[in-house]
Amino acid sequence: METKMRGADIVVRSLIAEQAELIFGYPGGAIMPVYDALYDYHDQIKHVLTRHEQGAIHAAQGYARISGKVGVCLATSGPGATNLITGLADAQIDSTPLVCITGQVAAHLLGTDAFQETDVMGISMPATKWNIQVRHAKDIAPAIAKAFFIARSGRPGAVLIDITKNAQVELGEFNYSPCQEFRSYKTHHPVDLPAIQEAAALINSASRPYLLFGQGVILGKAEAELKFFLDKSGIPAASTLLGSGALSQDHPNYVGKLGMHGNYAPNLLTNQCDVLIAVGMRFDDRVTGDLSRYAKQAKVIHLELDPSEINKNVRAEVAVLGDCKESLSSLTEAITAKKHEAWMAKFRALEQQEKEAVVHLDLTPTKAGLTMGEVIHHINQYKADDAVLVTDVGQHQMIAWRYFNYKKTRTQVTSGGLGTMGFALPAALGAQLHDYSRQVICVVGDGGIQMTIQELGTIMQTKAPVKIVLLNNNYLGMVRQWQQMFFDKRYSFTELDNPDFVKLSEAYGIKAQKVDERSNLKEAIEDMLIHDGPYFLEVVVEKEDNVFPMIATGCSVEEVRLH
Amino acid sequence: MKRYTIFVITENFIGILNRITIIFTRRGINIDALTASESRIPGVHRITIEVTVTEETVIQLVNQIEKIIDVIKAFHHEDSGVVYQELALYKLPVSRLDGGLEKIIRDHHAKIIAAEPDFVVLELTGHKEKTRELLEILKDYGILEFARSGRVAVAKRMLTIDSFVN
């Protein structure tokens, strides 16, 4: 049965129909009718008022990454909409499902430079998977249905719906029908069985096969299929940044992390394997280093959902297009069970070298200054198995990623592809609001936190029990490291005079503590993790520490340096 | 580098052309010519893009274009795989007309499609090389304006739009 209602009510009813339970946003003139409608539905859909639209969208991203659901975000026209752009670009490059709704000036004012009018369609186009402007109430529900379908299906991504104010206030029919398919958008590619046979033949005859897995495994809910494949094949497996958590680090085939600051063996041995199996990853330049010297000796098998990723950076000998949940299980059936002990031993030997040269010094340092690594090491001792690690961008991100003990899927939220400083605090809030009972640990640097520090206000208001660990070195540490290594120690504008973070947190009513001595660290972390409510722990770390191993820009994976 | 024709079969959706051109802009690739028109099927549009790139690049461009949600299908051909035509218009001052021009018009199979007191407009259809050749000649006649359309093309391959749409 069809009923007529305001466009604004259609917006909210459509969100409820899509099972959106929690949305993040910030009101303003052109979206006010929708906010007015939200008032009537507060028992069916919750809204969190952030302190900035960028905070809203990163929170929606954190929520989406942990829940596996579509993150939803509301903003007004003009500056409200432009403040979303960084988050859209971030979500799009990291394949995070998002639906953002922006208000727009009334249709008759479009193109006239009206107050708070901006060409949101044009601006958001390169940063979205799809966007649409709606100018009539009757078109709202179909647009939202299509938006949710596009955001969550295929390779997920960011979608924006721009709704003119007249469409929000006029009456329209509401009869919600979810979108299932449409002719120009293909989400499912049946598994190519001849390609599976070809891939299996390569794997069965390989003597040094090696598997790389990315976030595609998590997005495709193929964690179990990956594990079965590895159990049977005996193949060593390494993770990308965003793939971390897809396989428990306790798994015997797990050999570490890939990329610029990944582990020693997984990078180095990329150039010694004979068959390279890439699952749900896109050969980002931070993973491959110099492409012309990347795995040239290997036959590459690429299991990938997005056809445009195949042969984009690395040419695949066998490309298996499709959902890796299906392709991995077909591949597992087609291969013969093996063990690769000698090959695996190579990884373990290099791992030992890394431990001696880097890990021990990071985790159990003998020098006076605290290291970022020992902070993570202590967090590992006390954290829950399903604790979520949210990080920002920079040295702390790489160190936290390197040393955090990933045991479960969907336990990591970070800005991978875009490298968005300021991401962590709001993303942690979003992750926490999905599940108050889950441990959410936000590790952040003193640079990044100050880009979105206003969200402490949202944490205060929502009482989200986020555990914030600020690793403070009074530097933009990663840039400083590069200045030290590649710019002759010319520390150009990287040193920070910081506020008293403990006082600042306390001003927001958040319990806070500062640690600058090793003897207090362990207890402080324990205190933080058992505290009921949000907690801010500032750890003053060594000012000029560097992250190693490292593959410098332009170098090959085999040139990974331990110091 | 080679000349390729990219065919895009798409829904008639606002902004689609913008989404397509962004893919070229982002990679710093110049579009040589572009035409858009309706297709045989109502609601389905076709866009023809001419571009000079390497084969590797054209494959990536096509993959990226096809990834656009409202694009139904995108594919590319070398010149040998398509039948194409371009249209050129030449505006000439009447004061410069002489007997030689008649021969030029005849030789090139051009035609006069408009005559005004001050100027005439010639039309020539054909490949770029042919229309360019006439342009060079007409420079001696004080040509006032020259305009050439993008490529209008159909693929030689016996596949119809219906096979993509349905």
**Strand residues, percent of chain A:** 15-25%
Strands side by side in the biggest sheet of chain A: 3-2-4-5-7-6
Low-confidence parts of chain B, pLDDT < 50 over ≥5 residues? none
Q: Note the gap between the termini of chain B.
A: 35 Å
Instruction: Give the CA-based shape of chain B.
Output: elongated
Q: Class by helix and strand content of chain B?
A: alpha+beta
Mean pLDDT of chain A: 97
Name the overall outline of chain A.
globular
* Total helical segments of chain B: 5
- Over the alpha carbons, how many angstroms does the gyration radius of chain B reach? 19 Å
Q: What is the number of E strands of chain A?
A: 20
Largest interface: A-B, 18 and 20 residues
What Rg of chain A, in angstroms, do the CA atoms define? 24 Å
Oligomer: heterodimer
- Terminal CA distance of chain A reads 69 Å
pLDDT < 50 stretches of chain A: none
Helix residue percentage of chain B: 25-40%
Short structural summary:
Chain A is of the alpha/beta class.
Which key terms come to mind for this protein?
heterodimer, A: 563 residues, alpha/beta, six-stranded parallel beta sheet, 23 helices, 20 strands, 38% helix, 17% strand, B: 166 residues, alpha+beta, five-stranded antiparallel beta sheet, 30% helix, elongated
Characterise the protein shown here:
The complex is a heterodimer of chains A (563) and B (166). Chain A is of the alpha/beta class and 563 residues long. In chain A, the strands form 4 sheets. In chain A, strands 3-2-4-5-7-6 form a 6-stranded parallel beta sheet. The model of chain A has no long low-confidence stretch (mean pLDDT 97). With 166 residues, chain B is α+β, with helices and mostly antiparallel strands. In chain B, strands 5, 6, 7, 8 and 9 form a 5-stranded antiparallel beta sheet that branches. A 4-stranded antiparallel beta sheet of chain B has the order 2-3-1-4, with helices on one face. Chains A and B meet through β6 of A and α1 and α2 of B.
